[in-house]
Amino acid sequence: MKVLGFGAVLWDEIDDNLNIGGAVFNLAAHLRRLGSESGFITAIGSDELGRETLHIMREYGVDTSFIQVVDTQTCVVKVSLGAEGIPAYSIPDFTSWDMIDVDEKTLSSVNEACYDYFCFGTLEQRNAVSRNSLQAILHKCTFGHVFLDLNLRLHYFNNEVLRYSLKECDLLKLNDEEAARVAGTFGFNGSYDSLAQSLHEAFGIDLICITEGEKGAYLWSAEGWAYCRGYRVDVVDTVGAGDAFSAGLLHGHHNGLSLSEMGDFACRLGALIASRRGAVPQYVCNDIDALEAK
């Protein structure tokens, strides 16, 4: 399985501690842990944090061939943890990953690599430079599947970005709050099943997953639907738990699991990460199996 992510690599500052993160990067890092080949397209600063970013990405085994170094600070996001470890984010208005640029050589290299999955979100589309680069990749490159983690953050999206992103993906993950936002924006009403049907008909999305945090997740495809319960853990922080869920979802999808099986695996991996500090903590696959047994 070969995966290419596009988006932010940043540093979460939690209680004066810095931890590397970024939703799509976390997804790529978790998929590497699960045995996939993972690459990433982003821009980092020519500063100490940028150099540390490259070091850790390589340590994680994520391919850094498409990483650009720009004359803008590497992003630091202040994270405050509220009740039950739920994070709130303070994101700089302009930072390194707003300047992701791609040329014809990069586009050709991406195409030649034959990636099974391309993964992106909406946050990285707030600036025209990165947004245009993403659109060039989606327009000129071919992938087995395109996965969108909606990941609506603060005011860094609009209806045009939302519509474009939904139109370009065939696999979609969003949480319950984002599902309500999408339903209201496009005039979709009713249950999760009705929303999923509407998204499929309007945008041609083949797999739709709506998460409800620790409660579990709803998965829909043209073949049916499944609701997968969450796993109770002692929460340390939930930063990166949703990204780990996404990794589990794609891992299951690639391996031909049923909706209930891939949802269960994703829920277990997400719960495991919520029980540990940081977005990409150390773990092995046996830890995921042990959580299932518990």
Number of strands: 13
In the CATH hierarchy, the architecture is 3-Layer(aba) Sandwich
Low-confidence stretches: none
The structural class is alpha/beta
Average residue pLDDT = 92
CATH superfamily: Ribokinase
Beta-strand percent range = 15-25%
**Portion in helices:** 40-55%
Order of helices and strands: EEEHEHEEEHEHEHEHHEEEHHH
How do the strands line up in the largest sheet?
5-4-1-8-9-10-11-12-13
Number of separate domains = 1
Shape descriptor? globular
Q: Can you characterise this structure?
A:
The chain has 294 residues and is an alpha/beta fold. The chain has a single domain (2-293), classed as UDP-N-acetylmuramoyl-L-alanine:D-glutamate ligase. Helix content is 40%, strand content 25%. It contains 10 helices and 13 strands. It has helices spanning 23-33, 48-60, 104-113, 128-140, 159-168, 176-186, 192-203, 241-254, 259-274, 285-293, and strands at residues 2-6, 10-14, 17-21, 37-45, 63-70, 76-81, 87-90, 117-120, 145-149, 171-175, 207-211, 216-221, 224-229. Strands 5-4-1-8-9-10-11-12-13 form a 9-stranded mixed beta sheet, sandwiched between helices. It has a 4-stranded mixed beta sheet with strand order 3-2-6-7. Strand 4 (37-45), helix 2 and strand 5 form a beta-alpha-beta unit. Helix 1 crosses helix 8. The longest helix has 16 residues, at 259-274. The protein is globular, with a radius of gyration of 18 Å. It starts with a strand and ends with a helix. The model has no long low-confidence stretch (mean pLDDT 92).
